[in-house]
Amino acid sequence: MMKTLFLQPPSFEGFDGGAGSRYQARREIRSFWYPTWLAQPAALVAGSRLIDAPPAGISLDQVLPLAKRYDLLVIHTSTPSFANDAKVAQAMKDQNPRLKVGFVGAKVAVEPDDSLKASTAIDFVGRNEFDFTIQEIAEGRGWDGIDGLSYRNQAGVVVHNPERATLENMDALPFVTEVYKRDLHIEDYFIGYLKHPYVSLYTGRGCKSRCTFCLWPQTVGGHRYRVRSVGHVVEEIRLAKHYFPQVREFFFDDDTFTDNLPRAEAIAKELGKLGVMWSCNAKANVPRDTLKVLKDNGLRLLLVGYESGNQRILHNIKKGMLIDVAKRFTKDCHDLGVVIHGTFILGLPGETKETIEETIKFATEINPHTIQVSLAAPYPGTFLHKQAVENGWLDAAHAELIDDHGIQIAPLQYPHLSHQEIFDSVETFYRRFYFRAGKIASIVSEMVISPEMMVRRLREGVEFFHFLREREMAH
């Protein structure tokens, strides 16, 4: 077995590049998702180590000496972080020329040829679901016989092996919790709307929805929701509870955990017996009866992608969501006491100054507990990227999706709506949502009730205003 290091590379201060992060960038407040897509193959490779540099505050100078101690380096990358990650790969290769370096992630899965040609430091790319691809490399198998692999052969020629069969038996994957315990410090992971400390993991892969902007289903996950058995999921939560008694919340990072309602209810009932608090990603169409079952069995929060308050834009992005259904769902959640973190995207096809205003009004009307406002990001491999290139919406100068500070930029522009107008609308959205008397009162009451929450919200407030100030200075 090759001595293997899995690495989420050092990057911008506070850069959230983990696979759970839907948009790789710095956040308004310090936030880090778990590197679950790296932890999964790490669990398959005996004696391996996983380093998640940004949350741990590990610098490149601290990582470089490790190059001599390993035979194989696997780096998770993304479109925004690729240039930086390639530099890290080269620096590690300079330390140990014999080190084999492979990249994984959606970016290289859809652009394996360009990725390998971008840097001679990259020896191979694991495409699509790369878990067992990486395991076979670590076992020392011949690269020409490993499915799902793209690599540079001894003559320097890029070779693309056949696709790896889609993983159907999700229970064949080992628990990532073992790697979390071995290699990570869970207190390093913060998400503004989740209790701290939290643990996140996947109970399945793929998403039935066809949203044109969404990265994972269109690249590495697919549109069929392939799931672990209920017993397998519950056993890992039981183990995680034992390993991390300090954890206050578990998060299921499946693209849409509510894609399979009977299974969601079955898992919830088992979690209810364990007495754990949990949250998940959901679509804004879960029936009230199901919501009640989930809530009665430990569900605290749903992360809901509303995206826009304009029905035409929702049709344009193939969201498969009706505004009226979303409103009813949100009211049901409020009635039942299910907290909502709502996510919105500005700059999607069809966006105008008027639709931005409509979305802001929609958000204040349905009033989720917290929100995240992102800029439409056309990642390569998505239909949105194809549309943007074909229609001239994507400016090449903004194609890397982040600026020199690691902050998300507005990569799309339209004849009637500029980069700058879309970019500026994010701050407008946040200010108008949070600076309302009712919202301020609810945040203050939350702080008064909990001293811990007071400390946390004050810290987040400082980070938020610092972030806004940096945005203004950078643009």
Structural notes for this entry:
This protein has helices at 36-44, 53-56, 60-63, 82-95, 106-110, 112-118, 131-138, 177-183, 215-221, 230-243, 261-274, 288-296, 311-316, 323-336, 353-366, 383-391, 419-434, 437-449, 451-474; strands at residues 4-8, 15-16, 25-26, 49-52, 72-76, 100-104, 124-126, 149-152, 158-160, 198-201, 204-205, 226-227, 249-252, 278-282, 299-307, 339-346, 370-375. By secondary structure, it is an alpha/beta fold. The protein has 3 domains: 4-160, Response regulator (Rossmann fold, 3-Layer(aba) Sandwich), CATH 3.40.50.2300; 191-435, Aldolase class I (TIM Barrel, Alpha-Beta Barrel); 436-475. The strands form 4 sheets. The chain has a 7-stranded mixed beta sheet, sandwiched between helices. Strands 10-13-14-15-16-17 form a 6-stranded parallel beta sheet. Helix 12 links the parallel strand 14 (278-282) and strand 15. The protein is globular and about 65 Å long.
